[in-house]
């Protein structure tokens, strides 16, 4: 039986979130003047905290402010590659690296399933040795210009399970024919943790730790 090891990324593999740090990194590289718009990014975050906008809109607004509404993929590529190097050097849980290596050595198919954008996640996934990426997509035209708009669903909460199941179908994988281990730090991934054959709460938030204790899921700390 094939074994899939599916990982969340932010705060599961990485120590901190990556989306806002990536936008700031790319803005410094591509258009430093956009850093002057950072106060408006903070206002967008406040609007999200007050439930005036949803997470999807927050991500689109922040991208528009710090990267612009349209950016050629070729122009963005150097920033995504250098950011991936930075993440690997400064923002990875040591225990996550050990677990990834263990899963790979055991012949498991490594899948990264994250709400972060595919265009900057893929270089990180390559460096970590993942086989597949399931991430939030961006609208990109035939001219290969990335727009500040999400293509399809934001890969977060219940949508993550839907996108994983869609990936299984597109890959020709029958759910009953595979064993799935899923690693996550956050309670928003509860639908996938419930669906997995083996649920691992890695560096869990307080709410996920409480849920994991009630469900009997394995709890691990990858900070060391």
Descriptive report:
The chain has 224 residues and is α/β, with parallel strands linked by helices. The protein has one domain: HAD superfamily/HAD-like (Rossmann fold), CATH 3.40.50.1000. The chain is built from nine helices and eight strands. It has helices at residues 19-30, 38-49, 55-67, 73-90, 94-105, 118-128, 158-170, 190-195, 206-215; strands at 2-7, 70-72, 109-117, 132-140, 145-151, 178-184, 198-202, 218-220. Helix 1 (19-30) packs across helix 4 (73-90) and helix 4 packs across helix 6 (118-128). The longest helix is centred in the middle third of the chain and has 18 residues, at 73-90. The model has no long low-confidence stretch (mean pLDDT 96).
Whole-number tally of structural domains: 1
Number of strands: 8
Low-confidence stretches: none
Strand order of the largest sheet: 2-5-4-3-1-6-7-8
The rounded distance between the terminal residues' Cα atoms is: 32 Å
The CATH architecture: 3-Layer(aba) Sandwich
- Which H/E pattern describes the elements? EHHHEHHEHEEHEHEHE
Helix count, DSSP H or I runs of 4 or more residues: 9
Q: Please state the CA-atom Rg, rounded to the nearest Å.
A: 17 Å
- How would you characterize the largest beta sheet? 8 strands, mixed
**What value does the average pLDDT take?**
96
Q: Which structural class best describes the helix and strand composition?
A: alpha/beta
Shape annotation: globular
CATH class: Alpha Beta
| CATH topology group | Rossmann fold
What is the CATH superfamily label?
A: HAD superfamily/HAD-like
Strand content: 15-25%
